[in-house]
Structure formats: C-alpha cells, structure tokens
Amino acid sequence: MPVVAEPVVIARSSWLTLLVTSLVGFMVSLEITIIALAFPEIRDQFPEASESTLSWIITAYNIGVASLLLVAGWAADRYGRKKIFLIGLSVFILGSLASGLAPNENLLVAARVLQSVGGALQYPAGLALLLPAFPFAKRQMAIGIWGAMGGLAAALGPPIGGLLVGLFGWRAVFLINVPIALFALIAGRAWLTESTAEGVPSRVDLISIPLASLGVGAIVLAIVQAGDWGLISINTSLVAILGLVMILVFVLRSRTHEAPLFDLGLFELRSFTLANLGTVAFVIGFFAFFVPFPTFLQEAWGWSPMKAGLTLVPGPFLAAVLSPVLGRLADRIGNGPILAVGGLAGMTSMGLSLLLVGESPSILAVIIPGLFLGIAAGCSFAMSVGAAMRDIPFNRFGMAGAGRTTVFQLSIALAIALAVAVVGRPDGVTARVSAIQKDFWLCLGFFAVQALIFGLFFPRGNPKHQARSV
User: Fold this and answer.
1) d(CA 383, CA 353)
2) SS (H, E, C) the chain
3) CB-based contact 359:415 (threshold 8 Å)
4) What is the mean pLDDT of the chain?
5) Are 426 and 371 a contacting pair, CB within 8 Å?
6) CB 393 within 8 A of CB 264
7) Other C-beta atoms lying within 10 Å of the C-beta of residue 4
8) pLDDT digits (tens, 9 = 90+) for 312-362
C-alpha cells in the first residue's frame, strides 16, 4: 500500500510568532508608502531645504538600517533574538515620536537615523524568530503570509497617508507608527520565545559592515548631489571614489578577519548570490517608481493626497492577495519562476505607464499599470526573501537574513538617489511628464534585469532538505 504522508502540524506559538513579526513588517512597509504621499507637504513645510536634503528624510533611514543590520543580527544570535527584537521596537517608537515632532529638516533627518537604529535591531531578529518557528515544509508559506502583510500595508498606506495628511498634516505619517509598534512590543513580550544560535563568536569585526554601508551611502550622496555639483566634478568624483574605497576595505577585512561579521562564504551559495542581485534589480525598479510618482500626481495633475492615495490602492492590494497564494506555490515549484514573472509584470507596468501617463490626468492611466505593478510586488517582495534563504543553514539564519536585508535597504537608498537624479525638480506640467517618463524607462530596465536573473540563472525547484552547514 502507498505510504500516506502525515500532515504537518503547526503549533499555536508558530502562528503567534508569525503575527508579531508580520505586524512589524506591516509597520515598516506602511511607513514607506505613507511618506511618499506626504513628501509634497514636507517640501512645503521646509521651503529652504534642497531636493537632495529632503531625499535624505527617506534615504537616511535606509542607510542607517543597512549600517547596523549585521551587527544587530550577530547581537540577536548571541544575546537573544526576542530581547534584541523588543529593544529595537522600543527605539523605533522613540524615533517615530522624534520624527513626528521635528521642528526642522535637519532634526527630522536625525530622528530618522534614530528610527533606523530601531529598525535595524528588530528586522533580522524578527526573521530569525520566524523561520525556525515553522517546519521546513511550511516555511515558504509562512514567508508568503509575512510578505502579504507588507503588501497589505502598501495597499493601505496611500489612503491612510492621504487621510492623515489631509486631516492632521505630514507629522501624522510618522506618529502612526507609535500605536502599531506599542502593540507589537506588548504582544512580543507575551508571545515570542527566546532563542539564540550556537557557535556565535563573542568578538567579531564591528567595523566592516558599517564601513560598507557608509561606502554605499557615499555613492548615494554622489548620485544625489551630481545635479548640484556636476556629474564629473571634483566633489562628485572624490565622494564616489571614497565610497568605492570603503567597500573595498569591507571586502578585504571580511576575507582576512578571524571573526568577520558577515561570512562572504555565503555568496558561494548560488541561490543566495543571485537572489540578492535580483533583489537589487527589483527594489530599484519598484521604489524608483513608487517614491516619486505620488508627488507627480499631486504636482503635475493637481490631485489631492487622498485622491492620489486611493488611486494607487488597487496594485498593492492585489500584491497582498497574491503573496500568500504564491508562497504556497513556491513550496512546490520554487521561487525562481515566480520572481521571473514578477520582473515581466514590472516591465509591463512601466511600458503601460509610458503609453498612458501624459499631461492630461487619467485615473485609468494609474490603475491599469498599477495592477501589473501589484503583480510584480506580489511575486517579488516575499519571494525574494525565500529565494535568498532557501539554502541557508539554520545556524546562519540571523547572519544571512541580516545580509539580505542590508542589500534590500541599501537598494532602496540607491533607488531613491537614482529617482531624484533622473526626475529632479522640474517646473511645469510638460517638464514633469518628461522627467517621470525618464524614470519609467529606468524602472523598466531594472525589472528586465530581474526577469533575466530569475528566469535564466536562478536554481530550479526547492532544495530537498535544509542545509546544515556552509
């Protein structure tokens, strides 16, 4: 008689862990989409601030998170994932309050850096708490649900952001994080189970990773300031070279240090390397569109924050619906094909935007491309995590998760820098349309790279069992 496999039982504690970690992912994703709707009002609040300075309101958070993620991942593995997760939430609450109360753009950027410390502490710890909480056969499903919460936040972010900005002003988009984080803090203390990793060194290289992130930050600064400094000016060249040197020092230290904070040997795993390259392509394609486009809707077409937010809802909502379904599908066919479809959907979205978005306002010109962008997001956000983590051994969950998220956050910073450089601050409807169409071409190119990486080069299927060592 054929052997019938016993159903995999998932404990109640696993679902509670998924709830708390997904809620934190919801909060972070909500903030990204809300800020996009508030940006024009923030610009009006600080009229003396340059466009590059204002871009750091978003970019400083991403670079700050990236600078500390691997330090936080090591600390979580060594001192306790639950402990570091809850500390991160507490710091994030303080940073959100400070951002909402900041009296000028410089203090707002500083508050965002404080917020980034909290974000860095909570993210790798949360992922390290989630992955081992589920049986290996159901791990992609859990990641799919976790990713769906991010998609749901992206869907709710525009209307919530439009409502908050319309009723209370831009400060509310930061203060909205406080009640969400407080609930996650209370629930996390009650429901999460403490865990650590075996064999984590007590002393590690605490210089390399921040140095690498600062190097990327210097390159981002060169891109953002190229419009003011000149593309081939001395200042732009020196800052870019400094960034490249810091990244080179990171590689050399990581190869020679007796206890590197990030094991470069993880890049010997083909799935990890290609997933991170594909993540860079997807993130730039998605965020280089989603950050400047709401501003275009308000400034070029004269839409209110609420109208712009509501029109952007269908795409992210579709992503939230698709993500858990695709998570279950990935357990059977692997992440690669789904991520390749995501890249193709992103290309379609940008192609339709080039055809439909012009000087005359049109709701359909936003909704139709937005639905394809929602497919791209549903196929890519959670799936890129699963693709990167599919061959990672248990004792490297924290390090690999933090490394992958470092790439993700730095890619957002790079996406914003590229969007600022391409779009600039044009004057007049015709100039704004021309600038946003250049941005569409930029995003289309990166979505194409995503489709190529996952369609042609990423390993097929899923591993038969979880790797034990690297």
Assistant:
1) 25
2) CCCCCCCCCCCHHHHHHHHHHHHHHHHHHHHHHHHHHHHHHHHHHCCCCCHHHHHHHHHHHHHHHHHHHHHHHHHHHHHCHHHHHHHHHHHHHHHHHHHHHCCCHHHHHHHHHHHHHHHHHHHHHHHHHHHHHCCHHHHHHHHHHHHHHHHHHHHHHHHHHHHHHHHHCCCHHHHCHHHHHHHHHHHHHHHCCCCCCCCCCCCCCCCHHHHHHHHHHHHHHHHHHHHHHCCCCHHHHHHHHHHHHHHHHHHHHHHHCCCCCCCHHHHHCHHHHHHHHHHHHHHHHHHHHHCCHHHHHHHCCCCCHHHHHHHHCHHHHHHHHHHHHHHHHHHHHCCHHHHHHHHHHHHHHHHHHHHHCCCCCCCHHHHHHHHHHHHHHHHHHHHHHHHHHCCCCHHHHHHHHHHHHHHHHHHHHHHHHHHHHHHCCCCCHHHHHHHHHHHHHHHHHHHHHHHHHHHHHCCCCCCCCCCCCC
3) no
4) 86
5) no
6) no
7) 6
8) 889 888 887 888 788 789 888 999 999 999 999 999 999 999 999 999 999
Q: Which of 121, 68, 63, 66 is nearest to 92 (CA)?
A: 121
Spatial distance between the Cα atoms of 291 and 198, rounded to a whole number of angstroms:
41
Are 236 and 226 spatial neighbours (Cβ–Cβ below 8 Å)? yes
Ranges 39-53, 82-96, 280-294, 342-356: which has the least confidence: 39-53
Degrees, nearest 5: CA angle 32-36-42 = 115
pLDDT beyond 90 at 93: yes
Q: Report pTM.
A: 0.83
Count of CB atoms situated within 10 Å of the CB of 85: 29
- Tell me which of 90-104, 160-174, 212-226, 358-372 is least confident: 212-226
Which residue type occupies 14?
S
Give pLDDT, residue 398. Answer: 67
